[in-house]
Amino acid sequence: MPPEPVRPHALPQGRTARRPQHLFQRGRPAPTGTHKLEILGIGRPVVGIVIPSGFSFNLDGSAVYLTMASLFLAQAMGIDLSWQQQLIMVGVMMLTSKGTAGIAGGAFIVLASTVTAVGHIPLAALSLIVGIDRILNEGRVFINVLGNAVATIVIGKWENDFDAEQARKVLHSRTTTPPQAGVETAKAGADT
Q1: Are the C-beta atoms of residues 138 and 89 closer than 8 Å to each other?
Q2: CB 61 within 8 A of CB 142
Q3: Of 184, 153, 146, 114, whose CA–CA distance to 20 is shortest?
Q4: Weakly modelled stretches of the chain, pLDDT under 70
Q5: 103-127 pLDDT per residue, tens
Q6: DSSP assigned state of 41
Q7: pTM over 0.70
Q8: How far is the C-alpha of 99 from the C-alpha of 106, rounded, in Å?
Q9: What is the DSSP letter of 129?
Q10: CB of 129 closer than 8 Å to CB of 74
């Protein structure tokens, strides 16, 4: 069965907007996000490598969520964690956040399993945040997308595959179309 197409979310007055999840879907980047980064002036090879690998290994939003949620749960339960326990929790959460790629709601499952494995916080404490996990997912996705876009720019600059002049033109233009339509075809021809 083919996947259901991405549908924009309706806003008042008939306008539509896309949520950040749709710029880059988990595990496989949507053409919209990669195309925007190429228009910004980053070479296609860099975008093609950094974005897919970033959504497997560079999950900043999930790591921040897991750490903050575990510390919140400890405070809410009245558990006083030492600095060593907090650092262990942060380290474990940073490592386990890599397992959330490609799984809808995976961060909550990882949080539950990690809290159980570390043992500082009772599993029943998760009932305090289960109701707002869906809302927090929006923030996780935004931070993941932003972190991967910044990582793509940094790697593009590092590999000398970033056109700073093109980026200035795109960022200072008031239109949504790229200022130079020939830039993309010129870069595509240079790749062959």
Answers
A1: no
A2: yes
A3: 146
A4: 1-31, 99-102, 104, 174-192
A5: 767 788 888 888 888 888 888 999 9
A6: T
A7: no
A8: 8
A9: T
A10: no
